[in-house]
Amino acid sequence: MNIQPLNDHQSELGEGPIWSKERQALYYVDINGCYIHKYDLATKELSSYKTPSKIGFLTIGEGSEWVVGLEKNLAIWKVDTEVFKEISPEVEEHLNTRINDGKMDPFGQIWFGTLDYDFKNPIASLYCYDGKIHKVIEGITISNGLCWSGDGQYMYYIDTPTREIAVYDYNWQQPDELKLLRKIQVNPEDGMPDGMTIDQDGYLWVAMWGGAKVVAYDSATGTRMMAVDLPTPYVTCPAIGGLNGQTLFITTAKNDLIDDVAGKVFSIELPAIKGVMK
């Protein structure tokens, strides 16, 4: 498989890639660098927008105002500018935590989690935002990957140190009442599960921090289906997009590595992918 970097740009901690079909562009964040980046597929131009703090995630909304997760707050970002408007009080104001990964569910609600800055204490949580912030799960250490089945019946979730993908019965009208159905175990030899996306066949594509790969699992059976190897170890999150919906974009991090590879965004064409789950 021929995997290539999009360009020479290296993020400190690249994360949260998301494909905009309308803009034909890949958006992603550099959490520690405090940037949102936009890669235009047609022009191959990279645009960068400074954020007012560390940024955990961004979501694609209607029009030019998107919800993003800053270090402690949710905010509205005026797309392709450096204008941000906070829309929530501080999350976990008095804890040594920050907002990490987040995504919009199929019904327009935004889910996001936090992480412990020491990466070892279960003081973080998972939240749902529907105009108000609801705490759903406590006792999290490093909240990461989120995605949903196409019919919205199941939610998949990763708390990285558990080395598990939790599968929940999901009712968007009662987000506080998640029901754990089963867990998909991650082989320690593959690394630590980080960000995640799902394709139209229901395969979960999971970035493996420290493992230099993205691993695909059958969401129904938990079977490990295949792996995409990368030339750098700290793989953070995949996203599906591109002209035909068959490109896997993958963000990575430097994590103190000093080379000309770590922190780049990579892409690979995978004909087996039938587009991102709607």
Structure description:
- The protein is an all-beta fold and about 280 residues long.
- The chain has strands spanning about 5, 15-20, 25-30, 35-40, 45-50, 55-60, 65-70, 75-80, 85, 95-105, 110-115, 125-130, 135-140, 145-150, 155-160, 165-170, 180-185, 190-200, 205-210, 215-220, 225-230, 235-240, 245-250, 265-270.
- It contains no helices and 24 strands.
- The model has no long low-confidence stretch (mean pLDDT about 95).
| CATH architectural category | 6 Propeller
Helicity range? under 10%
Counting DSSP H or I runs of 4 or more residues, the number of helices is 0
- Find the CATH topology: Neuraminidase
- Rounded to the nearest angstrom, the radius of gyration is 17 Å
CATH superfamily: TolB, C-terminal domain
- SSE run: EEEEEEEEEEEEEEEEEEEEEEEE
Shape verdict: globular
Q: Please write the CATH class name.
A: Mainly Beta
pLDDT averaged over residues: 95
Could you outline the blueprint of secondary structure elements for this entry?
Blueprint: E1 4-5, E2 14-20, E3 25-30, E4 35-40, E5 46-50, E6 55-58, E7 65-70, E8 74-78, E9 83-86, E10 97-104, E11 110-116, E12 124-129, E13 133-140, E14 143-148, E15 154-159, E16 164-169, E17 179-185, E18 192-198, E19 203-209, E20 213-218, E21 224-229, E22 235-241, E23 247-252, E24 266-269
Antiparallel strand pairs: 1-24, 2-3, 3-4, 4-5, 6-7, 7-8, 8-9, 10-11, 11-12, 12-13, 14-15, 15-16, 16-17, 18-19, 19-20, 20-21, 22-23, 23-24
